[in-house]
Design goal:
By secondary structure, the chain is mainly β. The chain has one domain: Neuraminidase (6 Propeller). It is built from two helices and 27 strands. The radius of gyration is 20 Å and the shape is globular.
Length: 374
C-alpha cells in the first residue's frame, strides 16, 4: 500500500464527542407541487439510488430485477437500460449480489457487492471489475475519486491504483484484510470491524467523506441491534495537517441516533447531502420525527435541514436533490382490514418516485446552495 501524495480531505464518522449544531436554514418539502418521474404499481424500488445529473439519469435497484441496476430518465421516467450484475463468481458477477451503486463524474457507474465492484461506461457497457483486498463491505460502499473507485477502510480510504496495486489514503489508515485468518478476535477489533463494514462513503474531486455507525458491542449493542450515534463527520485536511469536524444538524442527528445513520450523496455543487433513514421506531420518540435530511457546505459549515411539513410521514423517502428539488420515493402503502379494523402497512420499497420543490421556512440562504429555492 502507498500513500497518495496529492492533498486529500477524508471525513471519517468514527470520531466521538463532536457537538451537533442547529441548522442555519430550514427547508420544507412541498408535496403539493412538483412532478412524477416514475409511477408504476409493478415497481419495487429500493431506497438506495444514484443520480447522474449531467445525463439526467436515475439509477436504482428494483426487487423485480434482482440481477442488475436499472436506469430511468429523470425527464420522462422511461426505462433506459439495465446494468446486469447477476449473483455468482464470474468476472461480471457479484458473489453475494448487488448492494449499491455510484456514479462517477464522467458518467461511469460502479455497481458494488460486498467484496467486488463492477464498472460500466455511461452507455452501460461493462468495463471490468475490482476486488479490493479488504474485509467485506456489508453496505457495498463505493465512490469515485480521481477517476478510480474508492472504498472505506479503518481510518481512511483505499483507492484502486495502477498496475494491480491499491492506494491507501489517510494519515493513519489501517487496512483490514479480506482474509478472516488475519483478523484480531478481540471485542475492540470486532467493534471496529462492525463499523467499517457498514460505513458509507461520498467522494468529490479531491475529497472522500465517510460516515460509520458508532457504538457496537462495547457500547452495549449487538450485531443484530447495533448502537448508532451519528452526530458528526470529522474532517482531516491532508497536506496542511489541519483537522476539523462537520457536525450534522442537531435535529437530524437526534432522529438518526435511533437509526444506522444517514446515507451520503452530493448535489454536484460541492455540497454534502445527508439522506436520513426513516424507521417506524422514530414515531415513538418524543415529538415524532420531521427531518428527512440536510445539505451541508464542507467549506464554510453552512447547513440546511430538509424536513416534512407534518411529523411522522412514513410514506415519503428522501432519495437526493436534483434541480434544487427533493427526489422522493413513495413507499408502497397497503390498506387491509383485520378483525374489523383498518390496518395500514408501509412496505420497504417504493413504486413511485417524484420531484418536489423545497420552500424556505426560516434562516438565511447559504451562498451557492439550492439557489432557486425561495
Amino acid at each position: 500500500m502507498s500513500r497518495v501524495a496529492l492533498p486529500l480531505l477524508i471525513a471519517v464518522g468514527w470520531v466521538f464527542g463532536a457537538d451537533a449544531v442547529s441548522a442555519q436554514q430550514v427547508l420544507e418539502i412541498d408535496y403539493s407541487a412538483g412532478r412524477t418521474i416514475i409511477d408504476d404499481p409493478w415497481r419495487a424500488i429500493h431506497w438506495r439510488t444514484a443520480i447522474d445529473r449531467e445525463r439526467r439519469v436515475l439509477y436504482l435497484r428494483d426487487w423485480e430485477e434482482p440481477d442488475g441496476v436499472m436506469a430511468f430518465s429523470l425527464d420522462t421516467g422511461e426505462w433506459i437500460r439495465t446494468l446486469m450484475a447477476p449473483e455468482g463468481d464470474g468476472p461480471q458477477e457479484l458473489p453475494e449480489g448487488v448492494e449499491t451503486m455510484s456514479v462517477a463524474p464522467d458518467g461511469r457507474v460502479y455497481v458494488s457487492g460486498k467484496v467486488r465492484i463492477l464498472e460500466f461506461d455511461p452507455q452501460g457497457e461493462y468495463l471490468g471489475h475490482w476486488t479490493p483486498n479488504l474485509a467485506p463491505r456489508m453496505s457495498g460502499a463505493v465512490c469515485d475519486i480521481g477517476g478510480q473507485p474508492a472504498v472505506p477502510t479503518r481510518n481512511g480510504v483505499v483507492r484502486r491504483g495502477g498496475e494491480g496495486s491499491d492506494e491507501a489514503i489517510g494519515e493513519n489508515v489501517s487496512v483490514i484484510s479480506g482474509d478472516p485468518e488475519d483478523w484480531d478476535k478481540t471485542d475492540e477489533f470486532i467493534d471496529e470491524l462492525w463499523r467499517v463494514q457498514r460505513a458509507r462513503i461520498l467522494c468529490m474531486p479531491h475529497a472522500a467523506f465517510v460516515v460509520t455507525e458508532y457504538g457496537g458491542l462495547q457500547s452495549g449493542g449487538t450485531p443484530s441491534n447495533p448502537v448508532a450515534k451519528p452526530d458528526s463527520l470529522a474532517i482531516f485536511y491532508y497536506g496542511s495537517n489541519r483537522e476539523g469536524r462537520l457536525p450534522i444538524p442537531a435535529a437530524l442527528a437526534a432522529d438518526q441516533a435511533l437509526t444506522t445513520g444517514p446515507l451520503l450523496e452530493t448535489d454536484n455543487r460541492g455540497h454534502v447531502v445527508l439522506l436520513g433513514v426513516s424507521m417506524p421506531t422514530l414515531i415513538a420518540q418524543e415529538g415524532g420525527f420531521w427531518d428527512m435530511g440536510a445539505v451541508m457546505d464542507p467549506e464554510n459549515g453552512c447547513q440546511a435541514v430538509i424536513r416534512n411539513p407534518e411529523k411522522n410521514m412514513m410514506q415519503p423517502r428522501f432519495m437526493g436533490v436534483y434541480q434544487d428539488s427533493a427526489v422522493i420515493g413513495y413507499l408502497y402503502r397497503e390498506e387491509t382490514m383485520e378483525n374489523g379494523q383498518r390496518v395500514i402497512t408501509h412496505h420497504n420499497y417504493a413504486n413511485r418516485v417524484a420531484l418536489h420543490p423545497l420552500r424556505r421556512v426560516s434562516g438565511t440562504p447559504c451562498p451557492g446552495m439550492l439557489t432557486s429555492v425561495n
